[in-house]
Design goal:
Blueprint: H1 2-22, E1 28-32, E2 35-39, H2 42-51, E3 55-59, H3 63-68, E4 74-76, H4 82-89, E5 96-101, H5 105-116, E6 122-127
Parallel strand pairs: 2-6, 3-4, 3-5, 5-6
Antiparallel strand pairs: 1-2
């Protein structure tokens, strides 16, 4: 019985250690099957936008949502139209693409879709609801 108790305590300590390592860091790479989506904060996205002018800022909301306020220099391709229109508009599959939507759900879907289509440099920074910076209306 004592051996089982020691093993259980050791297992719990190992799990706590693993969980603490997982929660550290600012960005998260989620890999499922052959799809990798790099998630970054809106602060990191803003920094990239300010420093790198050779990026695409992709808004995947609806046209009405886009017209109500969007990030400067962003282009609109709704998540529903992405598979049909991405390759025509986003010609360079290695170009850095920063994707956002309203809350982060559609940007996550869009990031995975782009990755499946062969885009290699896609960053999901979630929803415009958490965007603390200026919008174009």
């Amino acid at each position: 019985m004592k051996k089982l108790g020691k093993r259980a305590i050791l297992l719990i300590m190992v799990l706590i250690g693993m969980l603490s390592l997982i929660s550290c860091g600012k960005s998260e790479v989620v890999t499922t099957e052959k799809v990798t989506v790099t998630k970054i904060s809106s602060e990191d996205a803003k920094k990239i936008m300010d420093e790198d002018k050779n990026i695409v800022i992709l808004d995947v909301r609806t046209e009405d949502e886009y017209n109500s306020g969007h990030i400067e220099n962003s282009i609109l391709i709704s998540v529903d139209d992405l598979e049909d229109n991405a390759e025509e508009i986003l010609k360079d599959k290695d170009q850095k693409i920063l994707v956002y939507c309203r809350t982060g759900n559609r940007s996550n879907t869009a990031g995975k879709t782009l990755n499946e289509m062969g885009y290699t440099n896609v960053y999901d920074f979630g929803g415009i609801n958490s965007w603390k910076y200026e919008l174009v209306k």
